[in-house]
Amino acid sequence: MTNDQALTEYLLRLADTDMVLAQRFCEWCGNAPALEEEIAMMNVGLDLIGQARNWYDYVAELRDDGHDADFLAFRRNEREYRNLLIAEQPRGDYAVTTAKQFFFDVWHHLVLTCLTESNDERIAGIAAKGLKEVTYHRRRSTEWMLRLGQGTDESHRRLTDVVQTLWRFTYELTDTDQIEDQLAEAGIGAGNVGDAWRNEVARVFAEAGLALPEPARHFYMDGKNGKHTEHLGFLLAEMQYLPRAYPDATW
Amino acid sequence: MYAQQVDTGSKGLKSLDEMSPEERHFQEKVDGEVRIEPKNWMPDGYRKTLIRQISQHAHSEIVGMLPEGNWLTRAPSLKRKLQLMAKIQDEAGHGLYLYSAMETLGADRDEEIEKLHRGEVKFSSIFTYPTLTWADMGAIGWLVDGAAIVNQVPLQRCSYGPYARAMIRVCKEESFHQRQGYEILLTMMREGTDEQKEMVQDAINRFWWPSLMMFGPSDENSPNSAQSMAWKIKRHGNDELRQRFLDQTVPQLEFLGCTAPDPDLKWNEETGHYDFGEINWQEFFDVLKGHSPCGIERIQQRKKAIDDGQWVRDAAVAYAEKKQANNAA
């Protein structure tokens, strides 16, 4: 695979993960546990879609095949989507949303930090802008991990249960595949952030009073290469409904 | 209007002679356009009326997120999704500062929200209508936010300071929403397919009359208007505001290339205003009484959100208390 081919794949992973997570935030609209959280979640969702759009725009330019960012978001099916598995998991209750977001934010922050040093100036620029936002996202989800972990017996129990369910998807945050290794080698991509991710998660788990599971191991699923859980298809069916039902429409 | 039929508890206006010295001083301040602030003396009826009005206004902002939230997960492009998210986020923000303004009057946000969930207080009739197509996002932005602005611009001069100041920020954001909503419809009409154009006309057909109803019944049937006007909570009559909204909206409707579902709508050279047909007030009163398309579902959803979130809020409080205790130790 050439670096250019690897790069579009790599950028789609970043974009699709942002997009899918933001879609899950949209599902919270009107359902948040407090008005302040309604606003905060919409904030994070807005940031993520803004970042997704920046990555999609770049992919569209690199591919130069007449398809724009909207096409990439709204016309690709679940086997073409490259998001991390953790992002597509159902929003669940606030413990699920918090844990998902925390696992992702720690990874996202590390990856964007690396990408600000990318040889590719476009990537470095997008990452630098996104990093400011993600620094806030990570702080926010970390605070919620502590609140739920240390709050009440119920919140602690809920969060513990959620960690058990979601943890298996975290191998995608600590492992890299050939595409990521190749781009890291070329000074373009972020490379493996697994050790730093585990350290940070361990630190927060300790403070939140949560037991840290053994590192997650790869299993059948592979979101980065389009092998998703069953949830993604429904998410995309809803999200892509209008552009697919009215392919000739302009919105 | 996001607050409709706000009860003032008044059985007729008092003259200055009939008032107690405190009341007279208060009324003279109001008459002299001096803003009333939270710590100033105010008649009990004024306080209660404002609490009713501001809480109803705040509830409407929050419930109003739901018909739009219905399309948030199905917004058709990145741009439209970002716009709608930002709009809904603004509405949550409006709700927050309206609740804060209300709390300066001694009311409690959680208690007022419970009253809403028990059906003891209302939210605006407009948000009980369903959003059936994407064009409804345009129609709501243009017509509903448009009607809200016409109502809220005079509220920027409301006699109660915190409410008036909240309205200044709210109005700025609503104007932006209105332009965005109109632009959604204009894009569909100018660049869209025939199906999209039909969608726009259908959305206008459904939201036209409910938008006119937002201003509330005619002034002669609005028993609380006179007292609210004397207190300068309200500056203009319902009919006057409705006419103002209509006069500014019809040219925009024509520019879109759409029509109103009102055969009696026509320009009146003599009055310099648009004439329009009879509003179905039975529908309006039915909606307020709860016999509405989605009123039950809207409240159920809000109640469920707050009920389901109880353990989350409990955890946040418990954590804050533990942290405080640790810091003190």
Write a compact overview of the structure shown.
With 251 residues, chain A is mainly α. Helix content of chain A is 68%, strand content 0%. Chain A contains twelve helices and no strands.
Would you mind describing this structure in some detail?
The complex is a heterodimer of chains A (251) and B (329). Chain A has 251 residues and is mainly α. Helices cover 68% and strands 0% of the residues of chain A. Chain A contains 12 helices and no strands. In chain A, helix 1 (3-27) runs antiparallel to helix 2 and helix 5 packs antiparallel against helix 10 (194-208). The longest helix of chain A has 30 residues, at 121-150. Chain B is an all-alpha fold and 329 residues long. Chain B has 13 helices and 2 strands. Chain B has a two-stranded antiparallel ribbon. In chain B, strand 1 (266-268) and strand 2 form a beta hairpin. In chain B, helix 2 packs antiparallel against helix 4 and helix 4 packs antiparallel against helix 7. The mean pLDDT of chain B is 95.
Number of helices of chain B: 13
Biggest chain contact: A-B, 48 and 51 residues
> Looking at the structure, what is the overall shape of chain B?
globular
Regarding quaternary structure, what we see is heterodimer
Instruction: Report the sheet with the most strands of chain A, covering strand number, pairing sense and barrel closure.
Output: none
Distance between the termini of chain A: 36 Å
Number of E-state strands of chain B? 2
Gap between N and C termini of chain B:
52 Å
Secondary-structure element sequence of chain A?
HHHHHHHHHHHH
Key features of this structure:
heterodimer; A: 251 residues; mainly alpha; B: 329 residues
Helix and strand topology:
The complex is a heterodimer of chains A (251) and B (329).
Chain A: H1 3-27, H2 35-63, H3 69-74, H4 85-88, H5 94-115, H6 121-150, H7 153-166, H8 171-174, H9 178-185, H10 194-208, H11 231-239, H12 241-245
Chain B: H1 21-31, H2 44-63, H3 65-72, H4 78-103, H5 109-117, H6 135-155, H7 161-191, H8 194-213, H9 225-230, H10 238-256, E1 266-268, E2 273-275, H11 281-288, H12 295-308, H13 310-328
Antiparallel strand pairs in B: 1-2
Helix pairs in contact in B: 2-4, 3-4, 4-7, 6-7, 6-8, 6-10
